[in-house]
Amino acid sequence: MPAETVRLSDPQADYWAAAQSDGVEAARLPDPIVHHRGTGPAGFRLPALDLADASGIRIFVTCTGDADFRATFGSSYSGACTPDGASSGTLPLGAESGILTLDVPQESEYWLLVVPS
């Protein structure tokens, strides 16, 4: 019997929906600084953000598997992997190395969206 295929949703729709519920017009949304699909743990070098424009980063994650994920950028945000509804959290800017790490199980597929907040 073939393995069950899990449809992994792109969290960009959740980003747009969250912005609309906050009353932000689509034309004023900040562009994503990371929008990536992958498998297993990963690190992403983030561009320097202007503290006048952003106080942190907001992440949106969807992932497969019966496990948790953890995103770390100075502080960390974690949640359960879900393939069809993005988990979202905000991490403050501070003395980070410029590297955002995403820890998921080795076999877990994910979508990651990062925007300035």
Could you characterize the architecture of this molecule?
The chain is mainly β and 117 residues long. The protein has a domain at 38-116. Helix content is 9%, strand content 42%. It has one helix at 12-21; strands spanning 34-39, 42-45, 56-63, 68-73, 75-80, 87-92, 99-103, 109-116. A four-stranded antiparallel β-sheet has the order 1-8-3-6, covered by helices on one side. Strands 2-7-4-5 form a four-stranded antiparallel β-sheet, with no helix packed on it. It starts with 11 loop residues before the first helix and ends with a strand. The model has no long low-confidence stretch (mean pLDDT 85).
How are the strands of the biggest sheet laid out side by side?
Answer: 1-8-3-6
How many helical elements?
Answer: 1
Q: What is the helix/strand order?
A: HEEEEEEEE
Question: Major beta sheet, specifics?
Answer: 4 strands, antiparallel
Task: Please tally the β strands and state the result.
Answer: 8
Helix content: under 10%
Strand content: 35-45%
Write the layout of secondary structure elements.
Blueprint: H1 12-21, E1 34-39, E2 42-45, E3 56-63, E4 68-73, E5 75-80, E6 87-92, E7 99-103, E8 109-116
Antiparallel strand pairs: 1-8, 2-7, 3-6, 3-8, 4-5, 4-7
